[in-house]
Amino acid sequence: MPKVHKKNAIVAVMEQIGIVRIATTMTLGLVVSGLAFGLAVTGVTRLNNPEVALSILGNESTALATRADQIFLEDAGNPKRSAELLAIASIREQPLNPTALRVLGYYADAKGETKKAEQLILASQSQSKREFGSQLWLIESSVQKNDIKQALVHYDLALRMRPDSQLLLFPTLTSAIEDASIREALKPYIRANNGWAAAFLGHANANSQNLPALTELVIKSGGLTDKDASQAQKLGLISRLVSERYFGEARQIFLTLPNATTSRLANSSFDAADRDGRYGLFGWQVVDDPNAGSSFSGKTSDEKTELAVFANSSTTGSVASKLLYLRPGSYRFSAQLSNLDRGDGGFLRWEFRCLSSSDAPLIWTLDSINMLKQATFEVQSSCPVQGLYLIASGGKGQTGLEATIKDVAITKG
């Protein structure tokens, strides 16, 4: 977890998530007089526009603390003395004011009085764990002390209290999981129903620069406790792992899915799991395209799942594919059609490629126009991951191609 200078980090964080907001407009309802009017106005403005509140009631504690915070942030590296004085005035009016205590802690830290700063920040946190700026300071302080567990305690508090801080805190936390000790400390938070774990893993799915580390975190933590959220997160991670050629890690995540088995890794047949997509890229992938595509037919109760294929005239493209992890050895491939209607030159072709190589070289190809076609082939030890593709062409004329595939099988042979 990279160390960031406290003052700059705190200022950037607080300004970005809007801890300090200055209202540009204000509408008042019924006009009343005297103290009642003053209290009504300060209640609205003490957080958004503390100067207005203080012009009416100069000793309103919340407005004093908010104004002290604003002044401090104007130059956090060399804060004005007036920020400290306003915070002290706020505490005189309300001794247990968490914002004022935190501002005094920031001020002490800026002056190099780290021990005093820590005492004040801890006092602020003890009054309100919702004091976000205190959590930020304590995160950085814990990081500097190499106290990972305590840093995560404050991350958890900050993220639960301020969900809008996710965009700010998730990038640092995502980078931090490269450290094995941080992954270990994060495990209980991933399993906790804390409101931010699912969002964090979703962010990490899309942004992590260390996918093996993310894979290890998901596997060793057990993943999210919510079954639907866990399934969605793992399928999303599998998609990115495969796209970036982390086939071993993708296999590991797949095997954590409910009812996933190693047999599916070498199985090319169609079944209900292909229809409902429960295994993501580890099931058959169909192409939804208006010119050439495929779709599964049949209901969950049906014994057989069939693949309906089409290609418009003068269109050729891949319409279905399957990721496979066949072990080295000899195999027999077969595919059966239950019907076929094609224009002149229309065809179906099977391609088998080695995905372990970056250019995915073609191992074999088979034109599949007869009702039953077979091929034998060898898988070498240098090719542990393969892809089976179905190519369809509509040929010439106006009819295009339509076909139904009943069965695809790969057997040892």
Features:
46% helix; alpha+beta; 3 domains; disordered N terminus; Serine Threonine Protein Phosphatase 5, Tetratricopeptide repeat; 10 strands; Jelly Rolls; 5-stranded antiparallel β-sheet; 413 residues
Count of β-strands: 10
CATH top level assignment of the largest domain? Mainly Beta
Work out the helix count. 16
The average pLDDT score comes to 84
Number of domains: 3
Indicate the proportion of strand residues: 15-25%
Task: List SSEs in N-to-C order.
Answer: HHHHHHHHHHHHHHHHEEEEEEEEEE
Strand order of the largest sheet: 1-4-9-6-7
Poorly predicted runs of 5 or more residues: 1-47
Largest sheet: 5 strands, antiparallel
What would you call the structural class?
Answer: alpha+beta
Shape assignment: elongated
Question: How is the quaternary structure best described?
Answer: single chain
Please estimate the helix content.
40-55%
Give the CATH architecture of the largest domain. Answer: Sandwich
Q: What integer value in Å does the Rg equal?
A: 31 Å
> How widely separated are the two ends?
52 Å
CATH topology title of the largest domain: Jelly Rolls
